[in-house]
Amino acid sequence: MKQSFILVTALLASTVAQAAPEIYVIDNMHTYPRFEYSHFGFSTQQSRFDQTSGTITIDRVAKTGSMVVRIDARSVNTGSILNEHIQAEEFFDTKKYPEITFRSDDFRFDGERLVTVNGTLTIKGIARPVTLTVTSFHCMLHPMANKDACGANATTQLKRSDFNMGKYAPYVSDDVKLTISVEAIKP
Questions:
Q1: Among 15, 18, 109, 136, which has the highest number of CB atoms less than 10 A from its own CB?
Q2: How confident is the model over 106-149, as pLDDT tens digits?
Q3: Domain membership of residue 24 as a residue range
Q4: Is residue 10 a part of any domain in this protein?
């Protein structure tokens, strides 16, 4: 009897430790990919995208994950009259390529902390490998939605010219810092 109890307890403990991957849906109201670049060396210009969707799957026990982030390139918000200019063919070419995507199935952890996400960024139909460095990562019960939620901030550096968007370089810098601030909630 005692051995049966120990065996059942061990089996239950092993199933608890093998948590299943959890799926989160990106919250568009709190997710803003943004980019910044030097403008003639005078200032750092910052713009963002206002429409983002996708899913994040994470298994915090197995320390694995995947994500798909879809950015509506037509929602670019420069904070000025340049929205149409930056959607033109020499930049995002949103008539032909209305969506930017980031896909990953390679999450890297240091202990409990997510530190990098390796994936593929596609802009204007050009796919390039990108490593996002995660500067913050937090999961908890969302106090207003009363559902599990996770959020993160991640950054990377890229070159506009790698995506056929190098017009005006080097005066408008070819180097761009991309930051993805994301919140996602379990459905």
A1: 109
A2: 999 999 899 999 999 999 999 999 999 999 999 999 999 999 99
A3: 19-185
A4: no
